Amino acid sequence: MSLQLNRTEFGHPDHHGRVLSREEADTLFYDWVKNPRLQLHMRQVAHLMMCWAKEVQQLSAEVQWRWEMAGLLHDADWDQWPEQHCKKIIEHLEQLQVSPDVLRAIASHGPAHFGVEPVSDMDKMLYAFDELSGLIHAYSLMRPGGYEGMDVKGVIKRLKEKSFAASVSREDIHDACLRAGISLHELIAFIIPRQASVAA
Ligand SMILES: [Fe+2]
Predict the structure, then answer these.
(1) What is this structure's pTM?
(2) 187 in any annotated domain
(3) What span, in angstroms and rounded, lies between the C-alpha atoms of 148 and 2?
(4) Cα 18 to middle of ligand 1, angstroms
(5) How many A from CA of 54 to the centre of ligand 1?
(6) Domain that holds residue 126
(7) What's the pLDDT score for residue 1?
(8) Domain contains 69
(9) Which of 30, 52, 168, 170 is disulfide-compatible with 135, CB 3.0–4.6 A?
């Protein structure tokens, strides 16, 4: 099964800056995604995207929401239509005239799968947060205190254990850090406290 998108342009330039309201995005999210574990993953990635846009990039509230929306909807079609991931959500958001930068970030969140290179900061951070966030969450579930007291060293240890959260691609994580120009250490340290605040 190939998920290659076979295109490099997403959305229409005239629609730059257009977004769904939070209510519209939530409706789409709960309509399409029924699996609570996937919902949590998407909400975690959405929160990390918003925090990075706000704290590191110091972008306006308007742009922060575009980052957050890309995180919130990046796997929206994975639950019900895995064979059409992420073609289906992109086409749907195109019909809704959503901003091309959001569409492009979703399209490039797995370059090895979708064949679209992450270019912008939004693209690169969505790719960087996606797999690593999942591994850190899996680690929290096996710790008695969850996120409490979790440190970077512990996460790196789990990362090196290939059998731990085996479906998480270590290759993608390293590739994403390189592309984003941040160290693995820095990225993990950013994720832990912020992801801890997303309620299950
Ligand atoms: Fe994801």
Answers:
(1) 0.97
(2) yes
(3) 40
(4) 23
(5) 21
(6) 17-196
(7) 74
(8) yes
(9) 168
Contacts 24+ apart (CB under 8 A), 164-172: 164/135, 164/138, 164/139, 165/134, 165/135, 165/138, 165/139, 168/131, 168/132, 168/134, 168/135, 168/138, 169/112, 169/131, 171/112, 172/110, 172/112, 172/127, 172/130, 172/131
Cα of 121 from ligand 1 centre, angstroms? 17
pLDDT digits (tens, 9 = 90+) for 36-60: 999 999 999 999 999 999 999 999 9
Q: What tens digit of pLDDT does each residue of 146-161 get?
A: 999 999 999 999 999 9
Mean pLDDT of the chain: 96
- Calculate how far, in angstroms, residue 148's C-alpha sits from the geometric centre of ligand 1: 23
Instruction: Indicate if the pLDDT at residue 200 is higher than 90.
Output: no
Q: What is the Å distance from ligand 1's center to 131 Cα?
A: 7
**Counted domains in the chain:** 1
Output the CA 151–ligand 1 centroid distance in Å. Answer: 23
